[in-house]
Every structure is written in C-alpha cells, then in structure tokens.
Amino acid sequence: MSRDNFPPAVPELTLTQQALLHELRQNSARAVMFHQLISEKLDLNATDHKCLDFLNHSGQVTAGQLAELTGLTTGAVTSVIDRLEKAGYVVRDKDPNDRRRVVVKPAPEGATHIAPMFQSVMQSTLKILSQYNEQEMELILDFIRKCNEMTLEEMNKLKNISES
C-alpha cells in the first residue's frame, strides 16, 4: 500500500478537516515517541510507564481497576505491577475498606524521578493554553474528551476482532 492511500482518501472532507486529521495523527505519533523516550529514561517499557501514569493520576487502585482503566488483561496488569513494584515506583497495600483486597499506589519516592521529566512539557502546554479564552478551551476540552471516548470504543472493537 502506498503512502498516498493511507489513510484512505475521504473526498468530502474540507481542507480544515483533512489538516486536523493529519495533525491528530502527528500528535498521536509524537506522543507515543515522547512517552517511549520517557520510558527509556525511567528504565521502564512504554506500557509500564503509561500504567504508572494512570496510577499517579488515580492515587490508588486495585489490579482489576487498573485493568479496566487501561484495557489490559488482569494477568498483564499483575505483571506490570510486579515490574513497577520491583523498580520502586509503586507499593502494594491492604485496601482500607476491605482488608482481603490489595490496592496499588504510587511510591512517593518514585515521583521524584518522574516529575522533572514533565516540568518543561507542562510549562510549554500552559503557555499554549494561555493563548485561548475560556470558551475556546471548553471547545478544545470537549473535542479531546470525545476523542478519548472514541479511542476507548475503538480499542474495544479491536479486542473483539477475532484473528483469522
């Protein structure tokens, strides 16, 4: 398949829609490569790094909840947690509400390795956001939320496709 045919041309798109689709693909690819680089700097694989990101955002979750958040199997999540725990990024603890369950939470000392890597990108992102008024940011936020929902739906569709 030639580059000209991927993705398939959609002639009814406006030039702006075509440009947006192009930029979204570029943003997605660059985000993957950025996080791959971060992963390498942290001596993690990309999946472990992104699971750690979910944990850092959530505070503490069970392995089952992390599987739901990420779309990974519970078995894969257990392996991720084992590796993150061994590397010192997370700790397992008893669930305060149900002592039979275990929760996973970020290790405080793990954040000291991660935070500096995101300082510059956070400052750059805030600089970009400062160029938009509140109404424009609400529109951007709506678009990103819808893209995130769509991505989860597409992930679920891919999981349900049986290998031929």
What do you see in this structure?
The structure is a single chain. With 164 residues, the chain is mainly α. It has a single domain, classed as Winged helix-like DNA-binding domain superfamily/Winged helix DNA-binding domain (Arc Repressor Mutant, subunit A), CATH 1.10.10. The protein is built from 6 helices and 2 strands. It has helices at 15-41, 46-58, 63-70, 74-86, 108-129, 134-160; strands at residues 90-95, 98-106. A two-stranded antiparallel ribbon has the order 1-2. The two termini are 21 Å apart.
Highlighted features:
164 residues, mainly alpha, Arc Repressor Mutant, subunit A, 6 helices, 2 strands, globular, MarR family transcriptional regulator
Radius of gyration: 19 Å
What is the CATH topology classification name? Arc Repressor Mutant, subunit A
CATH class: Mainly Alpha
Tally of separate helices: 6
Supply the CATH architecture. Orthogonal Bundle
Q: Into which percent range does the helicity of residues fall? A: 55-70%
Could you tell me the number of beta strands?
Answer: 2
Strand order of the largest sheet: 1-2
Order of helices and strands: HHHHEEHH
Strand content: 5-15%
Q: Cα distance, first to last residue?
A: 21 Å
- The low-confidence runs, each spanning 5 or more residues with pLDDT under 50, are none
Judging from the principal axes of the Cα atoms, what is the shape? globular
Q: Tell me about the biggest sheet?
A: 2 strands, antiparallel
Category by helix and strand content: mainly alpha
Please, what is the CATH homologous superfamily? Winged helix-like DNA-binding domain superfamily/Winged helix DNA-binding domain
| Average of per-residue pLDDT values | 88
- Please tell me the total number of domains: 1
